[in-house]
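Structure, all two chains, one model.
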Amino acid sequence: EIVLTQSPGTLSLSPGEGAILSCRASQTVSTSYLAWYQQLPGQAPRLLIYATSNRATAIPDRFSGSGSGTDFTLTISRLEPEDFAVYYCQQYGTSPLTFGGGTKVEIK
Amino acid sequence: EVQLVESGGGLVQRGGSLRLSCVASGFTFSSYWMSWVRQAPGSGLEWVANINQDGSENYSVDSVKGRFTISRDNAKNSLYLQMNGLRAEDTAVYYCCLGGISRRDAFDIWGQGTMVNV
């Protein structure tokens, strides 16, 4: 099983600031099979990024993904009020599919 | 509009059974892999199981093997999760998720979830 470790656990930032979220895998993940999801309180997760760096439909360009091998990053260039949420990375190339533990981005 | 609507959750005793359903609309259901993902209260996401387009192939996480069965009825645009031998650790919100044409696709659309309390 591929274990995904996200850091930091919580990120306290102000609107307008940038955010960098990390996802580290216990073994190599193909860039084709790494995704990021956003979950707002009380809501279902929403796909943000697939295949490491491709934005899903209607996702604004302030969200970007990068990485390779075992290290992946989600960057939010300028935080909007609606971006304060929990973010999860996921690998979907190897069964069992696995998620990271999440990073909470909270308002400072 | 693409939509997934889950139902069937509720309160059940340990060792009991429950069958979750997910009705899909707005897309050609029979063309896509589908998955169930769960989230325990205050916790992260855990993939549970997935199934291919015609139901001939499926996979699940070890913790539910032998207890949970994923299935689908393409004529009814419906996905199911039969859960037997329920344990306290199965308590979670269960989400139905739309995958892709390939088994290796991200989860493009999620339902609103249905809560299971054991």
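The radius of gyration of chain B is 13 Å.
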